[in-house]
Amino acid sequence: MTTNFVFVLDSDKKPLTMCTAGLARKLLDSQKAAMFKWYPATIILKKSVVELPLAYLELRIDPGSRYTGFALVEIATETVIWAMELEHRGLLISESLIKRNSIRRARRSRKTRYRKYRQNRKKPSGWLPPSLQHRVLTTVTWVKRILKLAPIKSIAVERVKFDMQQLENPDIQGVEYQQGTLHGYTLREALLEHWGRKCAYCDTSNTPLEIEHIHPKSKGGSDRFSNLTLSCHKCNQEKSNMLIDEFLKHDPARLDNIKKHKKQSLRDAAAVNSTRNKLFNTVLNLNLPVSSGNGAATKMMRIKSNLPKAHFIDAGCVNASKQVTLKTFQPLQVKSNGHGNRRFVTVDKHGFPRKNYAPKQVRKDWKAGDIIKVRKKDGTSVLGRVLKAAKTLAFIPKGGKETTFHPKKTKPIHRSDGYRYSFTTIDSVNVNVNEVFP
Questions:
Q1: CATH number of the CATH domain containing 403
Q2: What is the pTM for the complete model shown?
């Protein structure tokens, strides 16, 4: 049987050994402790206690492109007592940068003032694109948060490295690593030979053909050979930046044929390869012993422990010395959403600045994204998230419709911090919630 564990702090905010949800509930009911933080669930004792031998923990991290797994493991017994899965938003950042780039390029066709060239565009050593740097920063942010809540003795990070060419061609060897996919061909000639010198969408031949991206570049597509095809000018204009599934939804046979050519994207593998050393070196600066593991050893330990595949389970198996056991199958799900728009001037759909637009903060005590508890007329309470903070709060409860409440009838539960949280259950505070807040 699995058990949810809760972080415990003493009256001086010093981390103590984690306790079960049942014990935390008893301490809260007897007024010996108070809720210090909801996400992750943390209680703080109201009186100082005699220090007992602490069960030292190891924080293990399984970094990934879209998700990163965290696990707190009792070193002596190799038992996972708390886990978390962090969902990154690197793809959203990349799409936002592409959108910004298109708006800036549109300046060339508008009559705007001359901007003098500035020699400040040199990238510093170790620079990473914002979509990749985000993965490092959010991961380290959560490592620092967890270090303040638990008596962690060491950190283990998986430093997996992918062989990109072997992922495409498992039989590659020797000098073939240096030749590449288009060895002996130009790109256009290789595409003409591969697609039979005709349009991939209408089979038109004997007409000028254009190189076209199967997955649009404006939506994260790459310039890899497997993401390129040939099309006539008419089909290229009709497809524009539509997804291939939407463009060929009425021609499933042709859609399947094109998808067979398109190989699996290596975007995620490239992201992990680019950030693995940066993340490891950043964690080294936290003044704790840091060890590294590899993907093969993690997988072997997970299979040896007879555990299913999951991000937090892989994290628990990183650098493990013996079989790993779980005390919880209910990881905290954290989704990174950011803090909103930071642009000084918003633009309209044409890319022009919006005139006479000055956003104002109506309320200083509440803001969109805060989780609150609202007291109803019948005396019951309901949890939900603030949508708009005006004179009356626009509020959406779990599984309900948007409604409004007066701020005096509300109680803060969790302030918006750029993340969204979800649980299977929240037993430590007598609240049953099975949802991801909208």
A1: 2.30.30.140
A2: 0.73
